[in-house]
Amino acid sequence: MLRRKPTRLELKLDDTEEFESVKKELESRKKQRDDVDVVGVATSSDMVGASGGTGDGKTRELMINERIGYKPHPKPNTLPSLFGNLQF
User: Fold this and answer.
1) Max CA distance (Å), the chain
2) At CA 63, angle to CA 61 and CA 68, rounded to 5?
3) 71 with 65: CB under 8 angstroms?
4) What's the pLDDT at 17?
5) Can you tell me the distance from the alpha carbon of 50 to that of 36, in angstroms, rounded to the nearest whole number?
6) Where is the composition biased (Polar residues) (predicted)?
7) pTM above 0.70, yes or no
8) Could you report the per-residue pLDDT of 59-88, keeping only the tens digit for each?
9) How far apart are CA 75 and CA 86, in angstroms?
């Protein structure tokens, strides 16, 4: 394998200005999203309080599963499923 010399990258003034503008734009988006999340959390916590707060852990688990796209398929607890198809 041939060894290359390290590549030299030069930072220009335009690059730093572009970085700052993108950074400010992302921060403003994040701030808007956080404001929306705070309002959403307040309304969902009000709904949980109105329902009595029962099953909070289960609903939170379901919300997380839906958000990440996880769909659990529980396995049945029968002997063939535990030991497979054993034939003698």
Assistant:
1) 77
2) 95
3) yes
4) 94
5) 21
6) 78-88
7) no
8) 888 888 888 988 877 666 666 665 666 565
9) 18
User: How many residues appear in the chain?
Assistant: 88
- Token pair of 8, please? 């030299």
Tens-digit pLDDT profile for residues 15-40: 999 999 999 999 999 888 888 776 66
Identify the pLDDT of residue 24.
94
Structural contact between residues 19 and 12, judged by C-beta atoms closer than 8 angstroms: no
In the prediction, which pLDDT does 18 show? 94
Q: Read off the tokens for 21.
A: 């503008």
Separation between Cα atoms, residue 66 and residue 60, nearest integer Å: 10
Q: Classify 2 as helix, strand or coil.
A: coil
Residue tagged 């796209």 (tokens): 69
